[in-house]
């Protein structure tokens, strides 16, 4: 059995839902993980924001607009089949009634999580009823019944495996299984989620739990491209990536894949394939534990980076200095992305303002601290084993007219990272494409 995950745009309209239903039917008995229809989770976030600000009218107006969109989608999806439309409409209505019930009382993070869960509950209900209406024995596997996180917020893989296996046994004769991405319960049984974009993670966790033959991530583009198609024209899909390469790209900004998706698949040796719902025959990208050797595969960029420099005369020959610096970041549960050291100082980057003031105050005990905001990490990914010559030189040559604040190389065999100002991001991405891919193609 495979796990097929369809993202928001893939189920973003009645027409898309029908297309995806065809793809699902053609592929047989698999577990289908669905995101909310595109735009829905953003709107649910907006509704929650209104409620945090006690703007109940704003929330209600937004709920009405969203509900009208769903009513239209249902009309189109079930045109000519009133019985199926009513069945799906009852389920969708129950979700909207539930959201409305949360506009009445105290609004906390618990209610917010319950609101955010409704998008995936609605998309799966609609797909399930649609598949049944075309004669498929489709069954919902409720994610809230088997996806659980532990007290540290990590997925409880043992629990997921056991519960999911029991559900699959219970519905052994189904033609296909539909489940919600993104949503889960926490260790206390409350509704929670796996963070924005987390449906990819759900697919990987489900794939690992059933030891799937493959995990397919279906989206709106034909695989992982060699640069960010939102900023660079003429990018090409990459045929194959190693798990490590895919992890670096996802972590450093390639939005097509959520960074958390890679690990469960890698640990269980399950291939991940990125495919395009709009062009199902396209080859896509295969992510596995082998890859074409040598050379750069792709470039990505991670925004909103803050660089922190700690300069200390006392660092000279001072063992233990780096440990003390790292301990401060550990105390505030803040992870470091890049690091560069010299005899008189160290520069690190973080991607969040959370606890930054406390971190800076503590760091000042060790020396002079300066920070640069609005930076971007540009990450060049591929088989960059250190004995391969010329790759660093080619990347540096591409960026020769761009001021570079930090460089990191040698941390793994898979990436070189450059820290540049946000104003130089698009130029840097384009220059790297020009030098690393387009030029190579011409030669
Ligand atoms: P879904 O809703 O299916 O999860 P996402 O919007 O999360 O889809 O991811 C797909 C988008 O990722 C593409 O439309 C594309 O704009 C963006 N993207 C960013 N970097 C890359 C890349 N290197 N390769 C492919 N797509 C990328
Ligand atoms: N619907 C959620 C989001 O928009 C999860 C996902 O699509 O992966 O973040
Ligand atoms: Mg996504």
Description:
The chain has 443 residues and is an alpha/beta fold. The chain has 2 domains: 3-220, Carbamate kinase (3-Layer(aba) Sandwich), CATH 3.40.1160; 296-442, VC0802-like. 41% of the residues lie in helices and 21% in strands. The chain has 15 helices and 16 strands. It has helices spanning 14-27, 40-52, 56-77, 82-101, 109-116, 118-133, 143-146, 157-170, 199-210, 243-251, 262-267, 321-331, 356-363, 391-398, 425-442, and strands spanning 3-6, 31-34, 138-141, 176-180, 183-185, 191-193, 215-219, 240-242, 272-276, 285-288, 295-311, 339-341, 345-350, 368-383, 406-409, 415-421. The strands form 3 sheets. An 8-stranded mixed β-sheet has the order 3-4-2-1-7-9-10-8, with helices on both faces. It has a 6-stranded antiparallel β-sheet with strand order 12-13-11-14-16-15, sandwiched between helices. It has a two-stranded antiparallel ribbon with strand order 5-6. The model has no long low-confidence stretch (mean pLDDT 95).
